[in-house]
Design brief:
heterodimer; A: mainly beta; 4-stranded antiparallel sheet; 9 strands; B: 7-stranded mixed sheet; 50% strand; globular
């Protein structure tokens, strides 16, 4: 499983766009990039997953450059309810990489 | 569907006692995981299973045991509880070929 590096914490004001970057220099050809969100006292929740270029859903966008050595989670117009810890995972879904480990995550605090 | 169900939600143990944390999922997922999360920290993988009868160690397996006799259930056993095992325990599952993990609501365990 490719090791990931994220900023420990970030602050942002309500209504702004927030971008959280994850570095994964050793990403393998078959690896996907998955982001999770965790609120206090809850288990992590899946946000978005991608392999290359850009993926968008109702919650966020995920930007992946051509070399795939990093990825950026973009949260549009954040609100106080987006205060949470965000984790980036990189790994292959199929045989040979069932062991999913989490990094330290990024603690995002939204300021009113 | 109930998803991933963990019991109990809270438990206090005395040093040296034993207990089993229960986890069951109704999504017919092959893969199941146990994580622990210490206060303010990320998730650490304890054990995981890729199917009934198959289990493997994660990052922090010492002091724990697991079994996987059915697809649905993946109990975590603590033998001789120690204060260092005070943590929140999360069970998760996913389908083979998809990295989207589904988490239970967690078990908060205190060993005093």
């Amino acid at each position: 499983l490719a090791k990931t590096t994220q900023p420990v914490s970030m602050d942002s004001y309500e209504g702004q766009e927030v971008n959280i970057t994850c570095s994964h220099n050793n990403i393998a050809t078959n690896d996907y990039i998955t982001w999770y969100q965790q609120f206090p006292s809850q288990g992590p929740r899946f946000i978005i997953q991608g392999y290359k270029t850009k993926v968008t859903n109702e919650v966020a966008s995920l930007f992946i450059p051509a070399d795939r050595k990093s990825s950026t989670l973009s949260l549009p117009r954040v609100s106080l309810s987006d205060t949470a810890v965000y984790y980036c995972l990189v790994g292959e879904s199929n045989f040979g990489n069932e062991k999913l480990t989490f990094g330290t995550g990024t603690r995002l605090t939204i300021i009113p | 569907n109930a998803g991933v169900t963990q019991t109990p939600k809270f438990r206090i143990l005395k040093i040296g006692q034993s207990m089993t944390l229960q986890c069951t999922q109704d999504m017919n997922h092959n893969y199941m995981y146990w994580y622990r999360q210490d206060p303010g920290m990320g998730l650490k993988l304890i054990y995981y299973s890729v199917g009934a009868g198959i289990t493997d160690k994660g990052e922090v397996p010492n002091g724990y045991n697991v079994s996987r006799s059915t697809t649905e259930d993946f109990p975590l056993r603590l033998e001789l509880a120690a204060p260092s095992q005070t943590s929140v325990y999360f069970c998760a599952s996913r389908r083979q070929g998809n990295e989207k993990l589904f988490f239970g609501s967690g078990t908060q365990l205190s060993v005093l």
